[in-house]
Structures are given as structure tokens and as C-alpha cells.
Amino acid sequence: MKIIVDAFGGDNAPLEIIKGAVDAKNEYGVDILLVGAEETIRKVAADNQISLDGIAIHHAPGVFTNNDSPSAIRTKAMADTSLATGFRLLKEGEGDAFVSAGNSGAIGAGSMFIVKRIKGVKRVAFAPVIPTVSGKAMVIDSGINTDVRPAVLQQFAIMGSVYMNKVIGIKDPRVGLANVGTEEHKGDELRQETYKLLQNTPVNFVGNIEGRDVPLDGADVVVCDGFTGNMIIKTYEGVALALLGKIKGIFTKNLKNKIAAALVLGDMKAFKKEMDLDEFGGTAVLGCSKPVFKAHGNANAKTIKNAIRVCKDYVSADIIATVTDAMSKISEAEGGEA
Amino acid sequence: MKIIVDAFGGDNAPLEIIKGAVDAKNEYGVDILLVGAEETIRKVAADNQISLDGIAIHHAPGVFTNNDSPSAIRTKAMADTSLATGFRLLKEGEGDAFVSAGNSGAIGAGSMFIVKRIKGVKRVAFAPVIPTVSGKAMVIDSGINTDVRPAVLQQFAIMGSVYMNKVIGIKDPRVGLANVGTEEHKGDELRQETYKLLQNTPVNFVGNIEGRDVPLDGADVVVCDGFTGNMIIKTYEGVALALLGKIKGIFTKNLKNKIAAALVLGDMKAFKKEMDLDEFGGTAVLGCSKPVFKAHGNANAKTIKNAIRVCKDYVSADIIATVTDAMSKISEAEGGEA
To answer: Pathway, per Swiss-Prot/TrEMBL (chains A, B) (predicted)?
Structure first.
């Protein structure tokens, strides 16, 4: 299995990306194709005593920055960037999956317009898997589509269920519709219509889910528009950071508290790891016809390594064939009703 | 100052409501007018050794439940409920503010249609004040209006600024627009247009704010539609509950950890209190022409007591006159532009 990695995406590129890719090769036994300015990659690796033995490099001199407009990913002017080149290599079958920590909007656009969608899929979506109080949950979409229709949310429910089942291993994943209350009539027209549609969709729909119940494990797949999902994910991250920061403050306040910290050190470390979004690496781009994974913009080597591990599971689970199949069944059912 | 209290709102009514109201009278020196079935109130108080000395009661035999449709608050059939009666008493000047832990939607509707809006205000809004890593922030709206226009969000920014200044004591409150990125062009049409409008509004607009920065103290007033605000507030609550639950699990895991817990007990208690949404009591209904406060549905005596304290500050700060004044200035400015 070969994972294509954008060496020039994210705040810590290229050093942390190269490190993470090399670590993933060694740990997970995957082949790596690094994309970016070859000379710079070799120099950074040499300067940091990183061996590139067994790592392939595809030269792409340009860099797609966060200030570039996402839609520019398709333009000729940006074709030589590591991000656009990575997408092209994935499309041409030069690797099995593509990882980048670069411009989020451009990763959405590249998935949608260069690699293209799975047949029948209306929109691609960011679908991060986050820790909950007793497991993991996916929030789909969490950033690409601010404006959606019920049929789009229905597809998110299906794609999310397939991923949580095949990649995360949850049997019959519970699908919840993110809403401002649990009763069927709650929310705006989009939510009310989607509720009805999900009742007649072959997923394990458990009804509306409020923001409060996302971290409390109220559903395995939380379905929402990208604006709402982004708010859930980012608020989650901020509250976790704020609380962990406060606890750190308590544990370093004075000698007595430092002793307490020493006593629970191992458990607190395990807890922090459990809550660490870096452990989750970023988000798959669901609906794309080949596996694309967006790592956090501030990804470090660990984040990239984890992202590559998730890509490996994503490729192995062959969820794209399953989603393709599910989509054709849904469109048949729609045809049958019409 | 007299606070009208709905004795039959919320999961723990009437006992906890009566308790909290009596505690508030004793602690803050406010007069209380309890609304609800008088006989029941007197019996519950007697059964629990609560003295109702100095507490006024207005008999209203009906109860407005969470299953009742919010718009029914205006109907004749519901006129004898404690909730509808409380609104009517407030409107008629029988008290200075009204507190209820009852049906959220009905509290919004009662504020809007029975007590009525401040002149010039387009919509009333829930505007809870929540703890941040280094202070407090308001999220306005957090549940009433799922569908808004830029001019409505502009008013939320103004009302929120006045409240945070006059009630919470923040000088020149920073106003942030909840969005999926910080750059001006981010988000949907609503966000983009509101951004431009807020740049020309007499508030301290600091730009877009992502969910991540709400708990990290990125703004004092977070402006959003009610769907988004509800997601932020509820996710915040859920993550806090999940994390505090995990920490409790660590501290009770074994003897060693219990010793650690004992060492940091005082600091952890202070931290829990700081993060406790019950300390914040619920939310003011901003834009209403008289002070209305919605306490959490699961409010206990402490929540109600705190809600009454907030009401006292709300009445004392006389923010309604200030908001009325600000609204007339905005509409003059709009008139000038037209």
C-alpha cells in the first residue's frame, strides 16, 4: 500500500511532515510517496538526520498556502503545487491514499473536482472522529458544506455509518441528527425534513441529538451541515483545551498539588492521550472516490503518523466500494418511489 | 425590588423553586412573588419546613408543560398557567423581573408577545453568560431564532454589549461573530453580510470567532443565530461534563489516586464551581421590554437563587433604557443611509 503525502501542507511543513511519514513507514510498513520540492525535502531530512531510504519523492516545486483561494486548486497556475500534484497522483493511481495538512478548503475542492466524487454522491464531507466519554463519534460534515439539502444529509448518514462500521469497527452505528432539541418537530425546516428522510433510510437512526450529548456518546454518527459540525468540533476542542489548561494550573500551583500530580501522573497522561485530537489525526474526506485525509493545519510528526495509520485502515476497509453500492441502492429506491 | 417567580417551571418544581426563591429573599433582600397553585405551594413548603413569611403568592392553578406548544402561551386555555400568569403580572407592573425554569420556547414567545419587545428590537434572544478560561462570555442568540437576518444579528451585538458592560462590568466588550474561520470572507452569505454590517456598528467588533476560541476567551459577546448558539452552549456543557466525569473517575480509581484527590480537593472544588453552569443560572431574554430570565429546566434551589441574583443585577443596571436608546440611534442611522 502506498500513501501519497503532501510534504508542504500545514504550519510545520516540511520537517514534521517528513518525520511523521518516515515514522509511519517504519511503524506501519506502508510505502510513502512524498510530494514537494525535492531539493528542500532532501536538505531538511539531511539537516535533521532523517533517513529517506525507501521513501519515494515526487518533485513539485510550488506551495499552495492557506491564503490561496480553495477553488484555485484546479487552475494551471497552481498545478505545480505539492497539494494539486498530490491530488493528481492519487487520481492517476500513483498511490492508494493522499494525506495533506494544507488548505482545508482546497482539500475539499481537490477531492471534489480533481479526484472526483463517488458515483451518486452529491457532496464530499469532512468527517472527523472524536473521542467521547465512552468511545468515539463522527461529526459529518464538519466544514465543507455550509449550505445543504436533506438528501445531502441523508448521504452523510450513510457514508458515516459505513465508515464507523468498517474502519472504526462499530456494529450498526447509531446515527443522530444534530439539532436544538430531541423532539421530531425541533429545529428549522432542513432539520425537520431530514428527520423524516432519515426515518426511511437504511441506517440505525436514533433521532435528534443535542450538542450536549455528542461528547456524552449519544450517537456514533452525528449528521449536520458543515457550519454546525465545525462549531461542534471547534467548541469541543476549545473546551477541552481550556479545562486541561485549568487542571494543569491546579497541578502546578504549589508543592502539595505537585505531589498530587505525581500520584496520578500515569492516569492523567492516559486521559490526555485519550482526549488528544492529535491522536485522531484530522479527518477523512468522505464521498471522494479515493481515500483523502486532511490532517490538522498544526499537525506535527505524531499527527501525520496517525493520519497515515488511519489512511491505511481506510484503504484496507475498502469502504469506497461499500459506499458506492449503498448510493446506487438509495438512488434505485428514489427511482422506485418516483 | 420584586421578582416574580414561576413556582411550577422545570423538572424540580415546585419544591426546589420555592426553596431557591426563599433563599434569594433571605440572601439578597429582594421581594418575591411566587406564581402557581397556592394550596400546593403552601403544602410543599409546610411539608419541607420552609417558611413562606414575607413571600407573596399569586394563585394560578394551571401548569404549562414542556410538551405544550410554545405558541399556546398566548391562548385563553393557557392563561391560568403559572407561566402565562407570570408574564402577565410582569407586563402589568406587579414585579420588576420574571424568572421561570419552564418551557424554553414558551418563555421566548411570552417575552416576545405578552411582555413585548423593546421598541425597535426585531427579535428577543437567549443570551447565556458562560465561563471562559479567563472570564465570562455571552453567546447570543442561543436558542430562540434559528432563522435570522444580518440586521437581527447586529441588534444581538448591541444588546449583548450593553448587557456585558452594565451587568457583568466589562468595559468596551469585544464582539465576535461566530464563524467557521477568522477571515472576513468565511462562512455563508449571512455571516459575510453580518461581518460587513458589524464593521459599521457602534460596538467593539473584533471579527469572526471560531468555536475553539469561545471557551478560550476570544470575545466577550459571541453573536450567532439560535441554532449555532445552542450547539456551542450545549457542546460546551457536554464536554465539560464528560471531562469532569473522567477526572472524577481518575481521582476515585484507587487509594493512591484518592490521596492525590484529597491534596487538591479545595482547588478542584473551586474549579468545579467556576465551570458550573448552575452558578450562571440560565439566561436572560434580551430584547424583551422587561427583565425575563430563563433558568435551566433542571434548575435546583441554587440555580433559582442565582437566577434571582442575576435578575437583581439586570434590573439595577437598567439596561433596558440603554438598549432602547441604542436601538433608536441605530434606526436613525439606517434612516440617514436610506
So the answer is: Lipid metabolism; phospholipid metabolism
The dihedral through the CA atoms of B193, B196, B200, B205 has a sign that is positive
Per-residue pLDDT reduced to its tens digit, A255-305: 989 998 889 888 888 888 777 766 667 899 999 999 999 998 989 999 999
Same domain, A146 and A279: yes
Record: contact B132-A242, CB cut-off 8 A: yes
What sign for the dihedral angle of Cα B166, B169, B173, B175?
negative
- Interface contact A279, partner B, CB < 8 A: no
Cβ contacts of residue B298 below 8 Å, gap of 6+?
B10, B11, B12, B101
Average pLDDT of B14-36? 97
Domain count, chain B: 2
Please give the interface size between A and B, counted as residue pairs whose CB atoms are below 8 Å apart.
Answer: 161
pLDDT tens column, B54-65: 999 999 999 999
Q: Is residue A336 part of a domain?
A: no
Q: Is A265 on the interface with B (CB under 8 A)?
A: no
Q: Terminal CA-to-CA distance of chain B, rounded, Å? A: 42
Asked whether residue A5 is assigned to any structural domain, the reply reads: yes
A74 lies in which domain range? 1-121+287-318
Same domain, B111 and B126: no
Asked if B184 contacts B207 with a C-beta cutoff of 8 angstroms, the reply is yes
Q: Does A77 touch chain B (CB under 8 A)?
A: no
Q: Is residue B37 exposed (0-12), middle (13-18) or buried (19+ Cβ within 10 Å)?
A: buried
Same domain, A252 and A296: no
SS3 B204: strand
Q: A138 vs B264, which has greater pLDDT?
A: A138
- One domain, residues A106 and A202: no
CATH of the domain at A153: 3.40.718.10
> Do both A203 and A303 map to the same domain?
no
Kindly give, in sequence order, each residue whose CB lies less than 8 Å from that of residue B201, ignoring residues fewer than 6 positions away.
B154, B157, B158, B330
Q: How many other β-carbons are positioned within 10 Å of the β-carbon of residue A29?
A: 9
ipTM of the complex: 0.90
Q: Does some domain include residue A326?
A: no
> Are A137 and A109 found together in one domain?
no
For residue A251, the chain B residue with the least C-alpha distance is B264
The dihedral region occupied by B217, where left means phi > 0, alpha psi between -120 and 50, and beta the remainder, is left
Contact (CB<8Å) A211/B232:
yes
Residue A41 lies in a domain: yes
> Three cell numbers at B163?
448587557
